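assembly run, all chains below
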Amino acid sequence: MRVSRRIFIRDGVATVTLGLSAPAFLSAIAQAQGIPSRRLVVVYLGGGNDALNTLVPYQDPSYYSRRPSIAIPAGQVLQVGSDAAGRALGLHPRLGGLLNIFNEGHLALVQRTGYENSSRSHFEAGDIWGTANPQSYTGSGWLGRYLDTLPRPVDALAAWNTTGETPRALLSGTTGVPAIPSASTYTFASPNRGSVALEERNAAQIMASNPATGRPHLAFVNSTSRGAIETLDRVAQATAYTPTVQYPNNGFALALRTVAGAIVKNIGSRVFWVSTGGYDTHAQQGQGGGGGYANLMGTLGDGLWAFYTDIRNQGFANDTTVIVFSEFGRRISENGSNGTDHGAAGVMMALGGMVRGGLHGTAASLAPGNPTLENNSGDVRYETDFRSVYAKLLDQWLGTNSVPILNGDFRAGAPAIF
Amino acid sequence: MSQLNPEIDHLLRRAGFGVSPVEVDTFRDMSTAAAVSYLVDYEGRPDDVDARIGRADHAQVTSKDLFAPDIDIEDARQRWLFRMVHTRRPLQEKMALFWHNHFATAYSKLTNDSGPLQAAKMLACKPGALRGPQGQLELFRQFALGNFRDLVLQAAMDPAMLIWLDGQFNTRTKPQENFGREVMELFTIGVDFYTESDVYAAARVFSGWNLRESQGYNKTDMNSYQEFVYNAGEHETSDKTFSFPIYSNGSRTIPARSESAGMQDGIDLITGLAVHPETARRLARKFWNFFISEIHQPDPAFIESTASVYLQSGTEIRPVVRHILSSPWFNDPSMHFARYAWPAEYVARAIKEVGWQNFSLDKARTPLAAMGQLLFEPPNVGGWPLGAGWFSTGTMLARTNFAATLAASQKENLGAEFESESQTPQALYAAMLSRVTPAPFDAAPQQALMSYLQAGAGSWNSAQVTTRAAGLARLLVGSAEYQLV
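ok done. output:
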């Protein structure tokens, strides 16, 4: 459902990308704080991913009886062994790239992630995952609060959002995160050329630097304008990146390519946000392992595999962790339209050179009445609090203290993904 | 300074898309009350805007071959922008945009289901242009200020909606929850006022509300269509109990009905939802943000008075909007420029104020996507992230770069128009601000603009006026101040 990347029309419009003004001192800030050696890439699957068809309990008879049309045939799954409860699992057949990473020991699959009283609303659930607070899900996001802990002044590119909108998770009390949906059109355009165009850029920068005292909403819009002007030139460096592999030609993979460019060119960003949509599969998920859901899995698996191999080739695999999540899982039983409605617990993934791969947590047993289920056995009940995974990432990957950021200690029961 | 009284300017920005130089005379001597009536009681003026597509003195459209806005989504997008810029009924188009966001339905899913031609037709076909039902946008235009309960009912039977929220698959044995949930969460009462068991019940209520294909249906045939059908045999007939009242006597249970009478279930639920006090308050809050302010919290007195007009009028929207536009909240000067322009509002107003000569609306299409508002492609069923949510570095850059595209296209016109009254940089500044109307500038940005113009003062000839007029238009329209309406 997400808008695809679009290329700007620039006919008759000169673009200015000279490093005329601010960038020099901004790079100096990044330099002073040190190029962070560890990057976190967050991949959000928008719409509520059907976890049971991502990581398939292919020996559970109830999986097949409750999903007579859309179940992935046991013969097609990519087997990844059995979990601690002895339940045999397999990846969706289009996740071949992820199977490679799993077999190398660097893909962690965290089963049944969620929280008590799981929301089935996209928007509420998205905000809960974003704020890391199921009780009160307005205000800043967990990654935004991480950015708030960085020493001041914070580099304008400390975090890099590849989508047009700022997700809840990146909302910060103090730090605006640039949104760079298309790095190649992230430029300053003018109806004039040469020195007049530079005068315009100058004037625009002064105007955007106006503190607008007494008009906070105007100050906010100014901050986005200023953030753009201040980051143009370093973003252009990432755009100039030549990858070592061919990325698939879709918005998700191209966003990952831009992220790889920013990592390899040492732009200085610590957190990246990437999203891919279409997971609200109420209908026509596809039968026999094919169809619409298989396309989603192909986009996901192929894009992540290209990204992983690219940064590994460039020597950055050990500096990069990718996490993948969605706002909820889906109902266990298929509906009448070869789809699934909104459910509860889902599957999180983590991958990267330092990730301890494997199956974490245990799969549900899908037979009605089993305690691993909820909502009259309609949905999968969570086992691992998603905030414990956030805690692991904050404490052990980003090297900060998760407790104040998550407003609580969620380290207990965290999966050993590092 | 604008040529109009600030209250009228404010009204035209909020209940329309701003005012172009050719429209100034219409409003110059109008009282504010007369202007409200002009906008709200638009039926007296013809809905003739589409007939003016192609005129040389209007904005242009560009098409791969024949311009076919009833069956081609890119052409439909241009037609809608053309309407926003040139309509004689600006509030009608403004409300159509509001409802498009409220009942947010995206072309991409319809295309996956029915192919690009049928998808565009289901969203944008004008009534009577081709065989089959009118497109969803035309429903929103028809009900722009109509009855809300009727609009929800029509939306529930709208082919695009039946595909978008999977109602087409909602059957007796496998009720489909998608529409049943969203009609409560997003279209009416809101997320805090229903339960999971209400979702199950609503899904059963709408079982059998499906689609049927026209005879010999072929998705690439422009006269083929899909239309709503009530499949009595697919309706689940048992009673359905909700956590909120469905009927005016307080009853929460829709009674068991025969298959043939079962369509009444959905009509009863929609009616119950439409007259629910939370729907009234939720609409009032949305209208506060759309018409009054996104910066100030809704005044409880506004919410209660607006909700009460809505309920007392039997869910009619016209009296609600008239009430709002005539209210003291609307005319409070502190509410001026207290909203963030939606990208479509921003683009239409920029074109109206800067100019459209030889400007193809096709050039706004891609920038609108980069600003985050590709028309007919909301990001999800909740609509676009409004208010401050429109703004990020990337989307703001897309706005300022559109300002550059527009100013570049109007460069020669601006030079010719402003030459005689722009003997000095100061004169050019005053002349440009008489038609391009950002929120007031503080001293520093004003000084930056003047310095930009002064930099050309050494050779202030007609070429310099042309250059600086275009640059000034770009800086004004690309300013943060201009993003507020």
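The radius of gyration of chain A is 22 Å.

Chain A has a mean pLDDT of 89.

not gonna interpret more than that til we talk
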